[in-house]
Amino acid sequence: MKAEYDFSKAKRGAVIAPTGKTRITIFLDDDILAAFRERAEAQGKGYQTLINETLRATIQPGQAPLTVEELRRVLREELHAA
């Protein structure tokens, strides 16, 4: 290995096209991260993939998982109609 290299005639290489993902820094509570890691291991997926799927389901109202509040509202409506 040389002690010094001459980069005066160097050219920048090709820029890699984005893949549809962006690297960010996010702080999650330890228990949340642990839960995602456990679920991901049980499902044979990566925990980041599982977090991504969960976030995607949350922003797509038609495909979002049923919340406790929504379930209670539906049950109240059904019981009231009966």
Low-confidence stretches: none
What is the count of helical runs?
A: 3
How many strands appear in the DSSP assignment?
A: 0
Overall mean confidence score, pLDDT: 88
Radius of gyration: 24 Å
Largest sheet: none
Strand content: under 5%
State the end-to-end distance.
83 Å
Helix/strand/pairing class, anyone? Answer: mainly alpha
Describe this structure in words.
It contains 3 helices and no strands. With 82 residues, it is mainly alpha-helical. The termini are far apart.
Structure keywords:
82 residues, 0% strand, mainly alpha, 50% helix
Q: What's a quick, concise take on this entry?
A:
50% of the residues lie in helices and 0% in strands. The chain has helices at residues 30-43, 47-59, 68-81.
Question: How would the blueprint of this fold be written?
Answer:
Blueprint: H1 30-43, H2 47-59, H3 68-81
